User: Fold these one by one.
Assistant:
Number 1:
Amino acid sequence: MIDAVGLRKVYRLKDREVHALDGVDLHVRQGEIYGVVGQSGAGKSTLLRCVNLLERPTGGTVAVDGAELTSLSGARLRAARRGIGMVHQHFALLSSRTVAANVAFPLEIAGASRGERRRRVGELLELVGLADKAKAYPAQLSGGQKQRVGIARALASRPKVLLSDEATSALDPQTTESILELLRDLNRELDLTILLITHEMDVIKRICDSAAIMESGVLQESGAVLDLLARPGSLLARSLFPLPATEAPDVVALTYTRQFDEPLMSQLTRKFDVDVNVLGGAVETVSRSSVGRLNVQIQGANRDAALDYLVDKGLLVEVPA
């Protein structure tokens, strides 16, 4: 649905050039939620704005739903952009307009009739849970309600792609949870492809199917979240599940992305004559799947063979530095 190849964006200042994007390849499948995570200044917002050509890339190409946007301009580009909705960090609502009028604004620009606008606004406010706020003004809403209005407005033209620019970073944890749940529901109900940027790993963990880590204008790694969690040396895995800080000898961190019916720890002790001491663990929901994490101490002459056995079983085995 989104196919960006070799994206470059250079800002030319008085005395230097700033390379905000440096050869970024981004591929987002239809119907998935794809998260780009990174610190401030990593280039995330620039990437998002290049996807819908609010910023025109210095180099590279962007295609959305089969249309190469970088080859379009004028009316053709504006028409293509109607298939892309955008949600902003600080809501960007028109304070002098009611909730209904804010949601209707893109439809007015597109030339929709008054009756069509009324019907569509009603549908959207029902969809985001604000049917009773149609006549309210932004100043009368909470932060979460404002963001729901922003989401409704972004969906007004029935886009296939939704871009989210730090949509939850200005919200409290409970409200963040409700907005993430709304985005996941919209993704399922509307078969909506969502590309979101964030600096919060918990957002990636909660709703993303695929993810990329961005640093200094470059994607350091990317892929399906569960695949990255099972990849040795993955930056995303280390961020979501930091290795334990311990001075105990022979400790390993085990990560598994599927359930096991067999008692692996008991098998280790019998099969390899090793001592296994479970120091801690947890099971979390990541990308709609259960991911387990165990910190264990494994000691004995056959320790290396026992670790190889766990790897063969599909566990990610990491040794804290």
Note: The mean pLDDT is 92.
Number 2:
Amino acid sequence: MSRQSVQAPKSVVMIRPHHFTPNPMTASDNAFQSNDEKRSAAAIASRAFDEVTRMAEGLADAGVTVHVFEDKTVTTPDSVFPNNWFSTHSGGHVAIYPMYSANRQNERRSDVIEMLKSEYRVQDVIDYSGLEKDNVYLEGTGAMVLDHIGRVAYAARSNRTNEVALERFCTHFNFEPMVFDAVDRSGKPIYHTNVLMCIGTDFALLGTQMIPDLRRRQEIVARLEETGRKVIELSIGQIESFTGNAIELEGREGRVVVLSARAHAALDQNQIKIIEQSAQLLPFDVSTIELAGGSVRCMLAGIHLSRRTALTEHLLFAAK
């Protein structure tokens, strides 16, 4: 169906939480968060655990290598979203990021980094987390949506995206920063760029209506189209259903676009047709996880590194 692409990693890291709950420390600037008053905290945590498990198994069935790490603590409610605290890059590079909320700073795990060094070829690890002491934040591939082909880092301004940190990252990792403002229905800044934007190999999903500056909106669309991509414009309602929070991965039979069942249901037939020209849609029910204001993209930290030894088969890897 599709050629291999540097945009679509073959492997991912997932964190399986044992005590999941929406994070009260992030609710003030994350309008996508919600509460479920009908279920107990234990029921919500159990359901979230099951959603991560089913998604990891489904990805492995599709031929994606999945490294699952357990989080048994009660101090890191957003640990299910590892893409915010680290990212990996071709050439053997890893970045560790400064996090806005104090309890999210505890999500960083040395065992994840050590696994990457053991299983993949890692040349260096650049740690930006010290910027937290200066109240400077850049929450990984939540704050940035990276075009690995065009080498552009798209970033919406927010509490979680500091332009100084962004410039530093782009200098180290050879990306061009493209910063813009994006707001929700009430005019509130979008907390993470990856809820309104997804970049695949041959297409891009973009909540254009949420970028109020028309000129900047046109510049972003033009820049994406320069790479040969078809830009699929998403409505505000689709963004609110997490349709922009998707990720393209490389599976056994070609590329897959992983997104939530809610996001998939919000796509119209023409949008589906465009995506399926280059990748298979792979939806998962993560409705409980979505209470925390993030969805499938946030749950997956893509691994853009070379393996040390080739896998003979794709297996769900559960880290002890």
Note: Residues 11-318 form a domain with the L-arginine/glycine Amidinotransferase; Chain A fold (CATH 3.75.10.10).
